[in-house]
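Dear colleague,

Thank you for sharing your sequence with our group. We've completed the structure prediction you requested, and as agreed, I am returning the results in plain text so they can be pasted directly into your records. Please verify that the sequence below matches your submission; if there's any discrepancy, let me know and we will rerun it promptly.
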Amino acid sequence: MVKLLALYPIGRILFWISIELKSYLFYLVNEVRAIEYPWVVENLRFVPRGDLILDVGCAESLLSHELIARGFRVVGIDIQDYPFKDKRMIFLKRNIMDNHLPDNIFDAIVMVSTIEHIGLRSNGQTVEDTNGDLRTMNELARILKHQRIIILTTPTSEKNPYE
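Please find the predicted structure tokens below.
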């Protein structure tokens, strides 16, 4: 083991430890998303590094940072301010239903526990739209490149997982 460690520069070892610690802290801080985030990351395994990903509803999430650390280019969009800004990420404070983005721009779109909030009077939305979820899905299809991937999660109730 000592000979093996001697083959690697100390900087490389510390870099590896830093990445592992960052991943651990990422999931620890977001314990309520401990199932969703790894599932999203796992399902992005076929998306090439460097591709452009849209993170919808990112305001209370560190998922964008995990995606950046994995080599993706990330745009986050939310109607609330994003407190975790990073110079490697573009953040748009906009409503996804009225985003002014060009057609066919994103290689992948992730939306973690967000779709169920769209169209409701909450989290900064002032106008109720009972078709907000359907309008959002149509909008995501418009801004997503042809035959690419949308990864979407929704919460479930422990008592009734189909609720």
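Summary note from our side: The radius of gyration is 18 Å.

Kind regards,
the structure core
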